[in-house]
Amino acid sequence: MTPNLRKDITILAIESSCDDTAAAILHNGKILANEVAGQKIHELYGGIVPELASRAHQQNILPVVAIALKTAGIDKNQLSAIAYTKGPGLIGSLMVGCSFAKSMAQALNIPLIGVHHMQAHVLAHFIDEPKPSFPFLCLTVSGGHTQIVKMNDYFEGAILGKTIDDASGEAFDKSAKILGLPYPGGPLIDKYAQSGNPKAFPFPAPNMPGLDYSFSGLKTSFLYFIQKQLVLNPKFIEENLNDLCASIQHAIIKHLMKKIILAAEQTGIKQIALAGGVSANSSLRNILMEEGQKRNWQTYIPAFEYCTDNAAMIAMAAYYKFVKQDFEMLECAPFAR
């Protein structure tokens, strides 16, 4: 399909990579609506159950899209394109969003735009002011990814460092599970840590060469420490919860910051951005800004609503793809890994 470029660009974006069903409406680069439906059922299992997630997406996607259109005051016939998350993510969840987007694009005879989930997290920085200029470094941290990306353009970048095992978001959630906190535990660690001493219990920082990350050893160290202390005192977690949360959070963030500081020194780039679900962590946000002031960086952190999975970031990435006329073939809407 080779559509005619319109002066007005209105995009419906759909995000369904994990357990949040989201839809957003963008008009000429501005977000008019950003709706999200979560899935409480996973709390019963202490983590995401893929089959349940995909079923919930099927139930949520139509009402979420309808609410987004109504909130934005946009009729479906005014849409210029439909965007969707093509990966990475849970295959069943991705299929729901992809199938819906593809069907709607075919019905309306408008372009289909596939968006890489992690690329969208980075481009969330262009939703609101202030916006970074190129090149900039982006520390992208989520439940499935931890990367340092050098962005040279909207769609041209290089991964300078990445985790060789677990992601930082997983380290937060698994640590919370070890402490007996309900899922999702990352935000709860952030909450309790605000009343704790980050140096109460020192945990060994991973010693990785270069700009790569590793969090599996830190998780194991934390697990063994907790198990040992519970043998000595069954109420150890209860009596030290705030300090434990503050200490493990401090260790994770220290590892994250060490590498982004090194990347900035090696590249000479002083525009530093933060993206992904873990960028909602209040301590990480504060420490990045503090380091930025100390090192004369220009720091960029998205609003909280654009940190966790959302469709506004998908819409923003799709907008730049639309301008380039970078569309998917309706006959084949592939997934990205």
Task: Explain what this protein looks like in three dimensions.
- This protein has 337 residues and is an alpha/beta fold.
- The protein has two domains: 10-123 and 308-323, Nucleotidyltransferase, domain 5 (2-Layer Sandwich); 131-301, ATPase, nucleotide binding domain (Nucleotidyltransferase, domain 5, 2-Layer Sandwich), CATH 3.30.420.
- The protein contains nine helices and ten strands.
- A hairpin with a 5-residue loop joins strand 1 (10-15) and strand 2.
- It starts with 9 loop residues before the first strand and ends in a 14-residue tail after the last helix.
- Mean pLDDT is 92; it is low at 1-5.
Strand tally: 10
Counting structural domains, the number is 2
Give the termini distance in whole angstroms: 25 Å
CATH class of the largest domain: Alpha Beta
User: Which strands sit side by side, in order, in the main sheet?
Assistant: 3-2-1-4-5
Helix-strand makeup class = alpha/beta
What's the quick description here?
With 337 residues, this protein is α/β, with parallel strands linked by helices.
